[in-house]
Design a protein that fits this description.
This is HTH HARE-type domain-containing protein. It comes from Planctopirus ephydatiae. By secondary structure, the chain is mostly helical. It folds into two domains: 49 residues; 62 residues. It has four helices and two strands; from the N terminus they run ααααββ. A two-stranded antiparallel sheet has the order 1-2. Strand 1 and strand 2 form a beta hairpin.
Length: 140
Amino acid sequence: MVEPSAELTVAELERMLTKRRQELTSLIGQRDKLQKELDVISRRIAELQGGSDFTPSRSPAYNSGRGRNPVSLRHTVISILTQHPPGYALSDLSDKIIETGYKTSSKNFRNVLYQCLYNTPQIYHDSKTGTYRINPKSDT
């Protein structure tokens, strides 16, 4: 092991530690003072904006890109399946829905579509053909 060229005494180490603690306390005090000033400014901004819930740490509002469709997915599916009685496989039905102009930002739209099909009583899955169809016994 290499020996240090200059050894510090315990008293010197304690002085260094005390100095660092004082500097830390000073910096924390400065930060707290600035935070209070920032809070006052934030409240004033909120007042000028008409009392909106303004939080400076929050990023500005942005458009999430969520599709806004005039017709729900369920109604779109029922409409497509009503026009094609033999039904469609999940992948084909997904493509047909997108072709109608239905907007989605889902990374896995087929899963969303499956959930819709599963939870729609007017639609059933024909396991022999692997297609989804309108249930002739249900009232549409």
